[in-house]
Design goal:
Largest sheet: 5 strands, parallel
Strand content: 5-15%
Radius of gyration: 24 Å
CATH architecture of the largest domain: Alpha Horseshoe
Order of helices and strands: EEHHEHEHEHHEEHHHHHHHHHHHHHH
Bound molecules: flavin-adenine dinucleotide, ligand DLZ, iron/sulfur cluster
Oligomer: single chain
Distance between the termini: 41 Å
Number of domains: 3
CATH topology of the largest domain: Serine Threonine Protein Phosphatase 5, Tetratricopeptide repeat
Strand order of the largest sheet: 3-2-1-4-5
Structural class: mainly alpha
Number of strands: 7
Length: 517
């Protein structure tokens, strides 16, 4: 065939420097963008997540056309739409009489499997190129991991600092240390009012998408009322600049703090834009470094922020591909309890959880410490089934793609991977949440009470978790102390904790089926 090369660009590949376009010329290329039912419903994504992705895709198609590319854009409501990437690729190959297909590798195992089939089943040559938007190519990650008995983010992160030269002074870390987390543990403080995020009023394209999503995905979780995510590169850059100026300087200090009703605190709220491809993560880190070099932000804030991106984000992505497909079924702690209904309804007397679910419903966002230490901590302590929990996180967050969601849920939070990703479970009682938030003051439960119907449920659940997993967690030296404390308690005390936890767990209503899949 003599036709053009077809380049499918997926909804999280909205970057002009995507590898699939790097060696292409506009006169010999047709870019294919596809809104497809399978992607919008393989889990029942939050309405705002679908709106963000479809609006960003439509804007990106315009950006590409303005740059001279031919873009074939298939809309969700096109009657001929087959509903899947594969179906649309087959139709487009035929439509354009394309002589080949070139695509950047996808972010999810599920889609990678489909693409591997393209290689064998499509009548044209299929090239799948590495996603060069990550700092660490996957083969380098596999090599790094292969030589190690224990995989830990901190060691990987140091290599990424050396590789990128970020915050380096020759071969030494600036400030003499790699990690300034010890300085980053500020509690909520009194009357903390973080600067507002720049909100983006939906334009015509976004309004059309919002209308489509509200009518077609009515029964999906979440609200569209306060939709204000950046959907164009220019908006994402504006959001980035506002973060660097207004919130980065305090990012470190309040990174772990939670305040009821303050849904973004000093976090970047840039993950939805980074993950769809509207912002380049390395460029963002370089800009953050410049804020420190020019004296506008302290080193502990900037180091903490850069670590999240070239450390955690890259490590998580490497671990996903290293551990799949097994990670999706992992259940190292044999947790079987179904997801409680309140994760969807927000109806719980536990104020911390109610506020985190409310923020999640309103924005398709909760900040890291809410995801980890409230929503995640509860899931760990209550022994929720990892696959239920993973589905929930994949549905509800605007930044959620399996490559980043699953290792965070199964590895960092639930220890379903038996500690491959993280050195110990982040299990915590109510005291931690009380120290880091203002939730407990107005909660129906008493955080200082350890057992009984009015006691903060996290307190008894914490000991219940340690007791029921004592054998499985025996190898973790960082849990030796709490386990020793448990064993030193009187029989009666231990029985009281276990009964209190059981009584609470017995009150949990499981979620109705159909929220996630
Ligand atoms: P900030 O707190 O300002 O951090 C800056 C950036 O660092 C983020 O934008 C993100 O790109 C990166 N980052 C920070 N922590 C992580 C991490 N653990 N893994 C990967 N990147 C990180 N992040 C997602 O992007 N998608 C997810 O689906 C997702 N699921 C999560 C599930 C759980 C259970 C947990 C504990 C964390 C999850 N995270 C996920 C990581 C993190 O919570 C979000 O990246 C962060 O809250 C995004 O908000 P922000 O941009 O304000 O981040
Ligand atoms: C998440 C998502 C949604 C909701 N819809 C689409 C879509 O209609 N078209 C598309 O190209 N991508 C979509 N995505 C993102 C994909 O699910 C994502 O690209 C793959 O899972 C690979 O990471
Ligand atoms: Fe959450 Fe317990 Fe505090 Fe209530 S008392 S807000 S349940 S930690």
């Amino acid at each position: 065939m003599t036709g053009p090369v077809l380049v499918p660009i997926l909804g999280d590949q909205l970057s002009p420097d995507i590898s699939s376009l790097a060696d292409r010329q506009p006169d010999d290329t047709v870019i294919l963008m596809m809104e497809v039912a399978e992607e919008t419903t393989y889990v029942r994504h939050h309405k705002a997540k679908i709106a963000l992705i479809l609006s960003a895709m439509r804007h990106f198609a315009e950006e590409l056309r303005d740059a001279g590319w031919t873009v074939d854009y298939v809309r969700l409501d096109d009657p001929a739409n087959t509903g899947s990437f594969t179906g649309e690729v087959i139709r487009a190959l035929e439509r354009h009489k394309a002589r080949g297909l070139q695509v950047t590798e996808p972010g999810e195992w599920r889609v990678r499997q489909a693409m591997e089939q393209w290689r064998t089943e499509l009548p044209v040559r299929v090239r799948i190129l590495p996603d060069t938007r990550f700092v660490c190519p996957l083969p380098d990650f596999y090599e790094w991991a292969a030589g190690r008995r224990e995989l830990r983010m901190e060691w990987f992160y140091r290599d990424m600092r050396r590789k990128t030269g970020l915050l380096m002074d020759g071969d030494k870390p600036v400030g003499g240390r790699w990690n300034f987390d010890a300085e980053n543990r500020g509690g909520p403080g009194s009357d903390l009012t973080p600067p507002a995020l720049p909100g983006f009023t939906p334009d015509k394209t976004s309004r059309e998408v919002i209308e489509l999503v509200s009518s077609r995905f009515q029964r999906h979780f979440g609200s569209l009322e306060s939709f204000a995510w950046p959907v164009t590169r220019a908006q994402a850059e504006q959001a980035r600049d506002a973060f660097l100026k207004d919130r980065l300087p305090q990012f470190g200090k309040y990174q772990d703090a939670m305040v009821a009703g303050q849904d973004f605190m000093f976090h970047a709220a840039l993950s939805p834009a980074i993950n769809v491809g509207l912002l380049d993560p390395l460029d963002l880190c370089r800009r953050a470094e410049a804020e420190w070099r020019e004296g506008r932000a302290p080193l502990e804030a900037v180091e903490g922020f850069i670590r999240q991106i070239i450390g955690w984000r890259e490590y998580i992505r490497g671990m996903y591909w290293l551990e799949m497909p097994g990670l999706a079924d992992a259940n190292g702690l044999d947790a079987t309890r179904p997801l409680p209904a309140f994760y969807w309804t927000g109806e719980t007397k536990m104020r911390c959880l109610a506020d985190c679910v409310r923020a999640t419903r309103d924005h398709a966002y909760a900040h890291h410490i809410q995801r980890l230490m409230v929503l995640g901590n509860f899931a760990l302590l209550a022994g929720l089934k990892p696959q239920d929990v993973a589905d929930w996180y994949l549905v509800v967050y605007a930044d959620a793609y399996e490559w980043v969601e699953l290792p965070n849920v199964a590895g960092m939070v639930l220890h379903a991977d038996k500690g491959r990703l993280a050195s110990k479970p982040y299990a915590a009682s109510g005291a931690y949440i009380d120290r880091m938030s203002d939730y407990c003051g107005q909660c129906s439960y008493d955080v200082k009470k350890k057992t009984g119907p009015n006691a903060c449920p996290f307190n008894a659940l914490y000991w219940h978790f340690l007791a029921r997993n004592e054998k499985k967690l025996a190898g973790y030296h960082r849990l030796a102390q709490p386990h020793a404390t448990w064993r030193r308690m009187s029989e009666e005390k231990r029985a009281e904790y276990l009964e209190s936890a059981e009584a609470f767990l017995g009150t949990l209503e499981p979620a109705e089926p159909g929220w996630a899949r």
